[in-house]
Design a protein that fits this description.
Rossmann fold; 12 helices; 31% helix
């Protein structure tokens, strides 16, 4: 392993466990990672010692209903590095045969920035989000939440031809941070009226797409009010289990022909597409990395992440 980033999912597993990790199981976390092949077993083709690789973390079964329809990222029986099997918060990671045969292990080209490659997993999830909402060239987008996921949505939206990117957040520090990532308008929704600002910035029409990139139920209605007719909204940020219920104004959906979707994970195709952007230096994620830790500093690394100090924290060998 050359770099492995801490994700909100890792923090939730530490706090609450995971349905795919039986109680009492010892599991090495970490599903955002990149590294170098140390050794290969006999019969493995396409990989060799010394080869730099990225790892798409979700391994599909290939036989469930969704897999047979080509929706591998919705596999009912998927196994993920750092969840179903040991992940990247270690010096070495064992790559199962199935992951190799399915294309989860992707050779890297050119000058390798392992830190940025490790962040490709959440970046590709954001790409899936924008693809599924049919975000297109010349549209306006509202992103609620200025954490790493909100920033990645902003970067990709600009790459995909956004006419205007608006980000809403209640942390002044994060609002200041996000300005360096190509955001057009920032709004502190705790101090300003988000709907008024969005309507003013869109000539009274509202935004074409809204993405909820934070785990706050009240954000759903707040963003819904900002959508233009025929607008689309993605509930990207999952809610805590004990507060996953939310109330929305159904009449806004009914009369304005609105669509609400949700996404998680990504396909290997999407993972590969965003990876090529990183390799070609067409997108720069380096500004997201605010903490670097050795594996033996794991306690400090997780504490830093849990307090939302900075943006992305990563482990280095």
């Amino acid at each position: 392993m050359k770099a492995a980033a801490i994700c909100g999912t890792d923090l939730r597993i530490i706090e609450h466990g995971h349905q795919l990790i039986p109680g009492g199981t010892n599991r090495i976390l970490g599903h955002e990672m990149a590294g170098v092949i140390e050794a290969v077993s006999s019969g493995v083709s396409g990989l060799k010692p010394g080869m730099p690789v990225a790892v798409a973390p979700n391994i599909h079964c290939g036989t469930c209903f969704q897999c047979t329809r080509g929706n591998f990222h919705l596999c009912h029986n998927y196994v993920a590095f750092g969840i179903g099997i040991d992940g990247g918060f270690a010096e070495y990671v064992v790559l199962p045969e199935k992951a190799i045969l399915q294309g989860n292990i992707i050779p890297l080209k050119g000058a390798i920035d392992y830190e940025q490659v490790a962040l490709n997993e959440p970046l590709s999830c954001c790409f899936n989000s924008l693809e599924y909402t049919n975000f297109s060239f010349g549209e306006t987008i509202l992103i609620v939440g200025a954490g790493p996921i909100g920033i990645m949505h902003s970067l990709l939206a600009n790459k995909m031809g956004a006419a205007k990117v608006i980000v809403s957040e209640i942390s002044e520090q994060r609002l200041e941070d996000v300005k360096s990532f190509g955001v057009d308008i920032t709004v502190n929704s705790a101090k300003e009226t988000l709907k008024e600002i969005v309507l003013d910035e869109t000539d009274g029409k509202g935004v074409d797409v809204a993405v909820i990139a934070c785990p706050v139920p009240s954000a759903h209605n707040q963003a819904l009010e900002c959508l233009a007719p025929l607008g689309r909204m993605n509930f990207f940020g999952g809610l805590p289990q004990k507060s996953s219920m939310t109330t929305i104004d159904a009449n806004l959906i009914h009369y304005n022909y609105l669509r609400i979707v949700g996404t998680s994970r990504q396909s290997i195709e999407q993972y590969t597409k965003t990876l090529r952007l990183i390799e070609a230096k067409k997108i720069d994620l380096s500004g997201l990395i605010t903490g670097r830790f050795k594996l033996e500093q794991w306690n400090r690394a997780f504490q830093t992440s849990q307090t939302c100090d900075g943006l992305k924290n990563i482990f280095l060998p």
